[in-house]
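Blackboard transcription, Thursday session:
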Amino acid sequence: MDELTAVFAAVVVITLIIAALFFTTLRKAMRIESELQLK
Amino acid sequence: MRWSTSVSAIMLIAIAMIIAGAYNALIKLPESPEPILKNNYRIVFFHVPSAATSFLAFTVTLISSILYLRKREYRWDVISSSSAQAGFFFITAALISGSIWARIAWGSYWNWDPRETTVLILWFAYAAYFALRASIENPEEKAKSSSILAIFAYATIPLSYLSTFVYFSLHPSTRDISIGLNTGAVLGMMITGFILMYISYFILDVKLSNFELKVREVD
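(Written on the board underneath:)
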């Protein structure tokens, strides 16, 4: 694997980590929203 | 359409644009004919979108801070702090990528160049914003004081933008740069991807803060 491909792979991994954190937080927000609707 | 579906769609488009943009920036585009730049110029595709997105986020913070001080509605403070958080993340990314570029192009990670110095002042101004928010317990006082600070902190944005026009700045100014169509298209794709990522995070954070506020009110 050349240097640029390795950098591209790192960019993909970092982007996916940010996306995973985003969707985890989104799930938390949706859970709180549904709890509020039940109250 | 539910808000959660909208922000998910915006985030997915942002991810697709950033990955496609990074593929073009790192793999597809040819290396620079300049001997020093070669492949190193590719950092611009991450540095410029980070800086541009942070400027947009801090502008949203400025506007919502002014609106809070005028209307005293708590939602403007939530918008202000959420946007400032995103802006701080992106300006930190711009500072780091800029330092890597400085090492390659100018020989040192830090050169006290006018752009580097003014962006560092900007970084500290918004770090002070978060420190201030963390130090005040009363929500009304917190919102009022941090809104005032956010307005003053914003002065560092035009300061850092204009710093490249100083004659001894190493950093290229926008009038010095001319880029080809392909390079411009990839840069545009990356800037759009970063801005969409900011928008999706920003909407989610505002919603989450509002839900947490409502939970406290109900309890």
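Lecturer's comment: The mean pLDDT of chain A is 91.
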